[in-house]
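ingest -> validate -> predict -> emit
validate: passed (alphabet ok, no gaps, 577 aa)
predict: started
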Amino acid sequence: MALITALMKLRGVLAGSQLSLEVVGADEARQQQKAMLDQLDDYLLPRLVQLEAPILAVVGGSTGAGKSTLVNTVIGKVVSEPGVLRPTTRSPVLIHHPADADWFVGDRVLPGMARTSSDEPGGMEDAGQLRLVAADSVPRGLAILDAPDIDSVVEANRDLATQLLAAADLWLFVTTAARYSDAVPWEFLQSASDRSTAVAVVLDRAPSETIDDITGHLAQMLLERGLGESPLFSIQETVVDGNGMLPQQSVASIKDWLVDLAADAEARASVVRRTLQGAVSAMVKKTPPFAAAVRAQAETAVELRTSVESAYDQGVKDIAKACQDGTLLRGEVLARWQEFVGTGELLKGLQSNAGRLRDRLKSSLGNKPAETRDVSDAIQSGLESLLREHGAAAAERAEKVWEATAPGRQLLAAAEADRAANGAEGNGGRSLGAMSEEFPAAASRTVREWQTFVLDLVRSEGADKKSTARILEYGVNGLGLSLMVVVFASGTGIPKGAQASAGAGSAVVGKRLLEAVFGDKAVQGMVDRAREDLDGKVHALMDAEFARYLAVLDQHPVDAETARQLTEAARAVEDCT
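emit:
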């Protein structure tokens, strides 16, 4: 019971493992995941729950090896149609004793396959359908399943053959004298050896003059690959009868062995135990490599996220620098500010005492609502342009980073496909490599909100009566614009006196004005708060753009904890064995 519980937990984690990113080895890992789940669902869990169920012998082998002919001859009637055209067997045929029907009509074995019952030969219908045939010639306690070709030209047939062999208690592996050394059969036989699956090998169509030599060589190959204890049968090349069956004496040894196995409860139990133990051991061994593949997915997801995050973080840093190094105190902003405060005249008075400077400032500013709006509009326009420029640059950087990796290209293609599916054409829907359609409006809103914050900061700082009186003299808007100008030059180290350049001098005027109203210490605090608020708003703006990439990444989810959970679940299974 403990082993069943541990395997069910492993199955749950395994089924929940997500391999959505195209990292190196992802396809192999997905195939491994399916094979492991099939092994758990088709064999391990059903067999552990019902150890007393009939032993299932799956007949497998290469195309044209004579599997269906062998099954029909052993059963004594045509239940699986051999074909002239290849590939032949498509849907599997399971033959059982009538008294054992209840073991197979449900979903105990191969739960994902639909059942149908018919005594008529077939097997050419649906590869996803299991045909059940009841036959008295099959001893109780044994069922024989005729599987598709392991090397079929049809991929679905090959996949089904692999799944059926993994669901077997016993392999009855059929090969021919002409093809017994082919690579594909030995890949399957080696996998059987690796997981200690019980195997019996049938050498079919062996020429009488060389049968002993071929049988000896095949026996040696089995020994070298860890299958030396596997029963080896040979069928001499002969002519089939009108029903396509071999002479009974040619398969007598095989039939007797199967009958004896079915009649010996201990022998059956030994086969089941061996195959079960091997399958559990193989499951434990396969889990670490699969967990490593899952871990690679999680690490890749982190790398994809980090690379885009870095692209947008760089944008935030570039904007912060441009908002403090005087970049914005050029062009229209500088011209409007100089018109507003008469900077040229005021620069001449920077060495004057505080009282015379305040008089000059009051005289320059006065009541200028139109000029105030001009400066405010120029600042808004300049800051919006800066945000749009760096927003576009960040999007382009992020796209280039993703384009440099296979998983990144996969995500970009998925985003583009989604955009196309939603009818996005031209500027109707922008790619991830361009700023979003919403960004310009969001940037404008960000600037307006910051300007409002600065004005509120001026009001709150001048809450006492003395400052309030001074604010009324200079105007909230004028002081707010002065604070914005000082913020835009706060990273340059504002020069003193006549050494100031035009832009820096404008910041000097703004700083002197603010100091005249609020005092040195208060001004520095206001500059810091205004700058921090702008930085925060810019960060939020860029985060919203960054979220577009995250949304694409989230459509390919990977759980970083899954690899650890797989390792723990496999360890729990191992502890139960």
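The beta strands are 55-61, 93-96, 114-117, 129-134, 142-146, 170-176, 198-206, 232-236.
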